[in-house]
Amino acid sequence: MGKTLADLGVGTRARVVGFDRGSRDYRKKLLAMGLIKGTEFMVHRVAPMGDPIEIEVRGYNLSLRKHEAVTLTVEGVSS
């Protein structure tokens, strides 16, 4: 199992490499929001208990619950 969005800290830049767990319908929802393989994003904010996580992706901010963030497998990218 690789690193997930839930593992990243504020200010981290990363790229979507795939989807780990979750329902097919939820994966479709993430794809519809622009989180496709290869998409780069930055972690903008993380709430005190780690839920939700706000990312900046494709020019807009998107908040995901922690249980949603663990479905996104990511890799770090250099600034």
From TrEMBL:
SMART domains: FeoA (SM00899). Keywords: Iron. Residues 3-76 form the Ferrous iron transporter FeoA-like domain. The keyword Iron applies. Pfam families: FeoA. GO terms for molecular function: transition metal ion binding. The keyword Iron applies. Signal peptide: none annotated. SUPFAM superfamilies: C-terminal domain of transcriptional repressors. This is Iron transporter FeoA. It comes from Desulfoplanes formicivorans.
